[in-house]
Design a protein that fits this description.
13 strands; 259 residues; UDP-N-acetylmuramoyl-L-alanine:D-glutamate ligase; 29% strand; alpha/beta; 9-stranded mixed beta sheet
């Protein structure tokens, strides 16, 4: 099976705290720096679960971009797309089962439709990050990628990403892309409203609901939830709900979003 993802490849800085930050003071933390981004994470987990995986997106021509690209490739993912400008960076602060993120997407949002190679989208499944639909020209590139992949016989999925980015412009772009499958948490689902697609609703420790059918989460001692939804999506695309929940369990048991 070949899985292709489109979206961001960022430098992911994960900060794990045992107690809340103290404004104006210091706290002891455990940190990890490496590749991240919704699309990159899904590609890495797909590769770890036995699929052929390719990531497509614009990444920076700087040290952050080089580091992120090298790590993603080390996970067995083919990395495709233009290299230009400044790479994105996301800082994720994790405390117990909660996480707070500060995102700088860099040049990723500047990916243009005319920079895509149709050969990149010969696949069984194309997974598009919802963040790709937040801004142009990247949104138009995502719509074209979906058209190409669907013509090749692929199933197209989208992870809605964040409820804060769902507005009328996002809904219009999503409708134009016309995914077969949507991944969303309950707040994202409610923010989007009715949409004609299959749904995988992520409910954290309560598991997932797939087109109205519930599946329980697997037990895990949570270290960090960053990337668990991306691991779930990869597992679901490769092997269905069971493999998705197992990948999410594996992700939550370690620090960082990648396998």
């Amino acid at each position: 099976m070949r899985v292709v993802t489109l979206g961001d490849l960022i430098l992911d800085v994960v900060v794990r705290l045992d107690e809340p930050l103290a404004p104006g003071a210091d706290r002891v933390a455990e940190t990890r720096v490496g590749a991240g981004g919704q699309a990159a994470n899904v590609a890495a987990w797909a590769a770890a679960l036995g699929a052929d995986a390719r990531y497509v997106g614009k990444r920076g021509a700087d040290a952050a971009g080089e580091l992120a690209t090298r790590e993603l490739a080390a996970h067995g993912v083919e990395v495709a797309g233009p290299v230009e400008g400044r790479n994105g960076v996301v800082v994720s602060i994790a405390a117990a089962a909660d996480r707070t993120m500060a995102s700088d997407r860099g040049s990723a949002v500047e990916l243009r439709a005319d920079e895509l190679d149709p050969n990149w989208f010969r696949c069984d499944a194309l997974h598009v990050s919802g963040y790709a639909l937040h801004r142009e020209p990247m949104a138009a590139a995502a719509v074209l990628a979906a058209d190409i992949a669907r013509h090749e016989g692929a199933r197209v999925s989208v992870d809605l990403g964040a409820w804060t980015g769902i507005d009328d412009a996002f809904r219009a772009r999503l409708a134009e892309l016309a995914p077969d499958l949507l991944f969303a948490d309950e707040r994202e689902r409610d923010a989007l409203g009715p949409f004609d697609a299959s749904w995988v609703v992520k409910r954290g420790a309560d598991g997932i609901v797939v087109d109205g059918n519930p599946y329980a989460a697997l037990p895990v001692d949570v270290v960090d939830t960053t990337g668990a939804g991306d691991a779930l999506a990869a597992g679901f695309l490769v092997g269905g709900p069971g493999l998705g929940l197992e990948a999410a369990r594996r992700c939550c048991a370690k620090l960082g979003a990648m396998p």
